[in-house]
Design a protein that fits this description.
The complex is a heterodimer of chains A (about 375) and B (about 260). By secondary structure, chain A is mainly alpha-helical. Chain A is built from 14 helices and no strands. The longest helix of chain A has about 30 residues. The two termini of chain A are about 15 Å apart. Classes of the chains: A mainly alpha (about 375), B alpha+beta (about 260). At the A-B interface, helix 5 and helix 6 of A face helix 7, helix 8 and strand 6 of B. The complex binds iron/sulfur cluster (2 copies). One iron/sulfur cluster binds next to helix 8 of chain B.
C-alpha cells in the first residue's frame, strides 16, 4: 500500500521536493537553536511561551476536529461522509505529529524529553496532555488502517473496531480539553483562568478543522478526479458555520465578563490585545483583523448561496482558518503573558529561526498528509 | 518526590560542602540538628523569611543580599533583561503589592524598592505543573529544583504567580563573574530559582542573603515559622506583615513589613 505514495506525476514530485526543501531549512534553523539555546527565539523571562506552543495549541484543535466526521458517519450513519472520514483521520494523524514536534522544539533540554515518561507526574496537566495525544495518535492510526483496508477489500470493517471508533469520539474532545486545562488551571495567569476556555477551544477547533478539510476537499477535486460531493461539503460548511458562531459567542462572553466586572488583572490582557498597553500594541492590528475577519466570514457563511457555491466556500473557509489561526496561534498564548505577574509589559514577536523551524514542522505535516492522501486516492483508483 | 532521592541530594550536597565548603564547618555549626530556630522534634519545619522594607529602604540602593546570592550561587551576569537570571532582586513596592498600594498611598512606600525572591509557597503551583518533578517541595517547605532532571519546558515559569523563576536561554557558564568551585553551575535550557540556600541550611548556616543583610541593616529575619518561639515566629505573630498575592492560596512564606 505504501508504495503508492512513491508513484506520482511531475506536479506531485515538485510539491514533495518543495516540502523537503522547507523541511531541510527548518532543520538547519533547528540546529542553530539546538547549538545556541532558546536565545535565538523571541521568548523572554516574561514571555516564556510563544509561537511554538501556540502552533501546538492550534494543531491540537485541528487534530480533534476529525470527530466532526467520525461522529456523524459512525454514530448517525451519515453516509455522505463515507469517502471523507479517512481523510479526516489522516489529517488528525499529521496534526498530532506536528503537535509533538512543536512541543519537542520548544524544550530547553530536548534530549531529556523522556523524563516525562520516566517520572510520570499525574498532577501535571502536561503529563496528561502527552498521554491523551499519544493515545489519540494510536487510535487514529489503528482506526484509519483497519477501516481503510476493509474499504479497499470491499469487506465490512472488523466488528471489534467499532467500540474503538466510538472511544475515539470522547478522546478527541479530551485532547483539546486537556490542552485548554494546561492554561485555564493557572492562578498565575488571569487571562486564561476562565471556565469558557475549553469550550471556546473546542468551538474554534470544530470550525477551523472542517474549514481545512473543505479546502483540502476542494483542492483534491481540482487536481484529482476525487470529489467528496456537495452533500458532504454542505454538511461540513454548516458544522464550520455553527462552530464559528459558538466560538464568537464565547468570545463575547469573555468580553462581557472581563469588562463589566472590570477587575484590572483581567482587563489588562484584553486591553493589551485590543487597544495596547503602556504604548505596546504589536498585536492590536492582528487581533482586530482576526475578529473582523472571523465575524465577516461567519456572516458570509450564513448566506446559503455563498455557502453552497464552491468558490465562495473556499474563500470563506480560508478566512475562518486565518482568523482562528491568528487568535489561537498568536494572541491567545502571548496575551496571557502581557502584562507579567509584576506588571511589566514585554512584547514578543517570533524571530526568523522560530518561523523557519515552525515552517519546517508544517512542511513535515504537509508531507505526511500528502503521502497518506496519495495512498488513499491511489488505492481508490481516482488518480 | 520520594524520600530516597531527597536523601541522596541532601547527602550529595553535604559531601560537596564537606569537601570544599570547610569554612562553615570551621564555625562549628555543621550539625544539621542545630539549624537556626529548629522547631524541635516531631514538628515539621517551615523555613521562612521576613523583610522589614523600611529598614531595607533606609540603606538606599543597598544590594548586599543580591550580591551575596549572586556570588554564592554562580549566578551569571546577563545584561539583557529579557534573559537575565535572578534569584533575588529588587522591585518597586507598587508592583509587588499592586492591590495593597494605590495611587494615594504614601509615595515613599509606593516607590520603595524591595527585595523579591521565590516565596517557597506552602502550596506551590510551580510544583503542581512540573511534568517531571524536577521542582518539588521538601518536607521543610523549601521548593527545590533538580537541574539535571529539568527538561526546560518552562511550565513552572508560566505557573508561578510571582515571576520568581529564570530560564537559561543561553549557556550561563560564560557569564559568571567569579566562578565558585564549591557550588554547581547550571547548563543552558534549564530553569532555576532561589533554593533558600538549602546547602547552607544543611550545615547550620543562614541563607546567604540574610547573612549579608545582617551585616548591613538586619532587615531580613530567617527562621522556622512552625516554631512560635523563633524570632520570625514571634515577629509574624505580633506584627502585621503582608505576603504577595495571598488571595491565590499559594501560602507564600516570604513576609513583608511595609
Ligand atoms: S514563588 Fe513561584 S517559584 Fe517560588 S514556590 Fe511559589 S510558585 Fe514556586
Ligand atoms: S522547566 Fe523544568 S522545572 Fe520547570 S516545569 Fe519544566 S521540567 Fe519542571
Amino acid at each position: 500500500m505504501l508504495e503508492k505514495a512513491l508513484d506520482g506525476g511531475r506536479g506531485y514530485w515538485a510539491w514533495v521536493c518543495t516540502l523537503l526543501a522547507l523541511i531541510g531549512l527548518g532543520f538547519v534553523a533547528y540546529l542553530h537553536q539546538f547549538n545556541n539555546g532558546l536565545t535565538v527565539t523571541g521568548l523572554s523571562r516574561d514571555v516564556p511561551w510563544g509561537f511554538y506552543i501556540a502552533q501546538f495549541t492550534f494543531l491540537v484543535g485541528v487534530a480533534a476536529s476529525a470527530v466532526v466526521l467520525v461522529l456523524p458517519y459512525y454514530l448517525h450513519d451519515f453516509k455522505a461522509f463515507g469517502k471523507l472520514v479517512v481523510l479526516g483521520e489522516f489529517l488528525a494523524i499529521s496534526a498530532v505529529i506536528m503537535c509533538m514536534l512543536f512541543i519537542f522544539v520548544d524544550m530547553g533540554q530536548p534530549m531529556r524529553v523522556v523524563n516525562v515518561i520516566l517520572f510520570p507526574t499525574p498532577h501535571s496537566l502536561m503529563f496528561w496532555d502527552m498521554t491523551v495525544l499519544c493515545g489519540y495518535l494510536v487510535l487514529n492510526v489503528l482506526i484509519s488502517r483497519v477501516t481503510f483496508r476493509a474499504e479497499i477489500q470491499e469487506l465490512p470493517p472488523r466488528p471489534w473496531i467499532r467500540p474503538i471508533i466510538i472511544l475515539s469520539v470522547p478522546w478527541a474532545v479530551s485532547i483539546h480539553t486537556v490542552t485548554a486545562f494546561l492554561y485555564s488551571g493557572l492562578a498565575a495567569r488571569p487571562f486564561w483562568e476562565s471556565a469558557v476556555l475549553a469550550p471556546r477551544f473546542l468551538a474554534s477547533a470544530f470550525s477551523a478543522g472542517p474549514a481545512i478539510l473543505i479546502m483540502l476537499a476542494l483542492l483534491l477535486a481540482r487536481i484529482t478526479a476525487f470529489d467528496v460531493g456537495d452533500k458532504a461539503l454542505h454538511r461540513l460548511s454548516t458544522i464550520m458555520l455553527y462552530a464559528m458562531l459558538a466560538n464568537l459567542f464565547f468570545v463575547a462572553m469573555e468580553f462581557f465578563t472581563v469588562f463589566y466586572s472590570s477587575i484590572p488583572e483581567h482587563t489588562h490582557h484584553f486591553r493589551y490585545l485590543f487597544s495596547g498597553l503602556e504604548g505596546a500594541h504589536r498585536l492590536v492590528p492582528w487581533m482586530w483583523f482576526s475578529l473582523i475577519l472571523g465575524t465577516g466570514c461567519a456572516i458570509g457563511l450564513l448566506v446559503p448561496r455563498l455557502r453552497h457555491q464552491r468558490s465562495s466556500l473556499a474563500f470563506l473557509s480560508a478566512g475562518i482558518v486565518l482568523a482562528i489561526w491568528i487568535d489561537k496561534g498568536l494572541g491567545m498564548v502571548v496575551g496571557g503573558f502581557v502584562p507579567s505577574p509584576l506588571g511589566a509589559v514585554t512584547e514578543y514577536w517570533p524571530t526568523l529561526p522560530e518561523v523557519g523551524i515552525s515552517t519546517g514542522i508544517y512542511a513535515i505535516g504537509a508531507l505526511i498528509l500528502t503521502g497518506l492522501y496519495k495512498i488513499a486516492l491511489s488505492e481508490r483508483a481516482v488518480i | 518526590m520520594n524520600k530516597s532521592r531527597r536523601d541522596f541530594l541532601k547527602k550529595a550536597g553535604m559531601t560537596l560542602l564537606g569537601a570544599s565548603g570547610a569554612r562553615f564547618v570551621i564555625l562549628g555549626i555543621a550539625d544539621a540538628e542545630h539549624l537556626p530556630d529548629s522547631g524541635g522534634s516531631g514538628v515539621r519545619r517551615r523555613w521562612a523569611i521576613a523583610i522589614d522594607t523600611e529598614k531595607c529602604a533606609s540603606q538606599g540602593d543597598c544590594t548586599a543580599c543580591i550580591d551575596a546570592c549572586n556570588a554564592e550561587h554562580n549566578i551569571p551576569r546577563i545584561d539583557n533583561p529579557e534573559e537575565e537570571i535572578k534569584w533575588i532582586w529588587k522591585e518597586r513596592a507598587k508592583a509587588v503589592f499592586p492591590h495593597q498600594l494605590g495611587n494615594d498611598s504614601p509615595r515613599t512606600l509606593r516607590d520603595r524598592e524591595i527585595p523579591v525572591l521565590c516565596n517557597h509557597c506552602e502550596n506551590p503551583p510551580c510544583v503542581r505543573v512540573c511534568p517531571t518533578q524536577a521542582t518539588w517541595k521538601r518536607d521543610d517547605g523549601i521548593v527545590m529544583m533538580d537541574q539535571h532532571r529539568c527538561i526546560g519546558c518552562r511550565y513552572c515559569i508560566v505557573g508561578c504567580p510571582y515571576g520568581a523563576r529564570s530560564f537559561n536561554f543561553r549557556d550561563p557558564r560564560r557569564a559568571i563573574d567569579k566562578l565558585r568551585s564549591d557550588y554547581p553551575t547550571r547548563t543552558r535550557g534549564v530553569v532555576e530559582k532561589c533554593t533558600l540556600c538549602a546547602e547552607r541550611l544543611a550545615i547550620g548556616a543562614q541563607p546567604a542573603c540574610v547573612e549579608a543583610c545582617e551585616a548591613t541593616c538586619g532587615a531580613m529575619v530567617f527562621g522556622d515559622l512552625a516554631n512560635p518561639d523563633s524570632a520570625i515566629g514571634r515577629l509574624v505573630r505580633t506584627t502585621l506583615t503582608m505576603r504577595r498575592k495571598p488571595e491565590l492560596g499559594t501560602e507564600p512564606k516570604v513576609h513583608y513589613k511595609l
